[in-house]
């Protein structure tokens, strides 16, 4: 697997303020990478530099092996970007807008109409292709904005808060769209404050704070490093008090509470300890049919960025 983006020792700032402080990471072909962090942590600045909208103070950024700062046109040729909250022409239709974008990308006139139809189908907006965008909801407009970024068949999408301001239905629709695009092979680099969606969508997550990467890894690995603290063990029958006492006596278990679904366990340990716990419960003849973590990426995020 080769990389579509490589960021090395990247530093950038504004009037003496260091927005990004010597960060290094890469995005592989077909990978879905999320960037999260508090406001002012450097997320948007990072994406602006990758998109050629801002120059770094130091470091290198290559897309498809080409330096963005030296040759932005070629570097961004196979990249689609949505930075900030782009506006659409209210009296234009999706077909008008995408035809215009296609001409910018020098798509042959004979192929342009079919390309527009293909992209509108990807974002589930075919039936709206000839409607004025002034009648669209914010979620529909966001689909057209993403459609613009797909017109050049990008190997990678760079998206800055694509669900910002959307209602839960709109957020879910965009998340499903991004999941489908990634499943089809498009690498995605996404910044977001919606940590639950990031956890569900992304192969890898970068947590930024004060311009530095303070944690990095797959969501499941970040949770295991943080410690799997709260687990719900689902059981066929409601556990007895004797069962609870036995569970509390197991290694690394700090508490065990009876619930309507089974047993809520606090475990001071890792993924391996969780596996050992499951084996011990089965050996004790407790009728377990499932186990899940009650901790989340939000817990990891807060611990990584709360400061001393």
From TrEMBL:
Keywords carried by this UniProt record: ATP-binding, Nucleotide-binding, Transport
Keyword Transport in annotation: yes
CDD domains in UniProt: ABC_DR_subfamily_A (cd03230)
UniProt cross-references to Gene3D superfamilies, sorted A to Z: P-loop containing nucleotide triphosphate hydrolases
Keyword set includes Nucleotide-binding: yes
Entry GO MF terms: ATP binding; ATP hydrolysis activity
Domain ABC transporter: 5-235
Similarity annotation: Belongs to the ABC transporter superfamily.
Descriptive protein name: ABC-type multidrug transport system, ATPase component
Taxonomic lineage of the native organism: Archaea, Methanobacteriati, Thermoplasmatota, Thermoplasmata, Methanomassiliicoccales
